[in-house]
Amino acid sequence: MTGGHLQIVVCAAGPAADVTQLITTAMQQSWTTAVTATPSALEFIDMEAIERLTGHPVRSTYRSSPGARRSLPAADALIIAPATYNSVNKITLGIADNYAMTTVAELIGRRVPTVVVPFVNAALAARAPFQRAVADLRAERVRVLLGTDDGWEPHPPGSGNSRQKAFPWATAFEAATRLAGEVPAGRTDRS
Hints:
Helix 3 crosses helix 6 (128-139). The chain has 8 helices and 5 strands; from the N terminus they run βαβαβααβααβαα. It is an alpha/beta fold. This is Flavoprotein.
């Protein structure tokens, strides 16, 4: 699919600092983008650079007034990247304790094509709750880029910094556009 609107949700992990790579990749394919950040992710990103590129403010909280208008286009695809251990588990359980998680829950519920790219170490990825979360998301038709087939594996504990530059931004975008291209033409339940 060429063109569309990509909603990006960033979580508090090192690769969040490089989310402009995803934004640029999307823009090169005629997609518009907007970024929502978990509250903790705000410390990882350059909000001004993101806002300059996207033309939209980075959102991390609910609208300031009840009657305020929504200013973003309807999402054609959603990418949650980097997704932390905590966020993957929250998404699966439907925990919407901040604006970003509420956005994710709603867009998945609306069946917006969704890609999740976890950034977790191998010890966390080995935990049963995380493995169940990944399986449950996949069962809900969410594309989780993780494992040998995706070329993106959990990193050894303590080695996250060295893996940050290899984060699969382009692969996530390709997966999202592929999913968006598979959406039935008559679908009207987009955000």
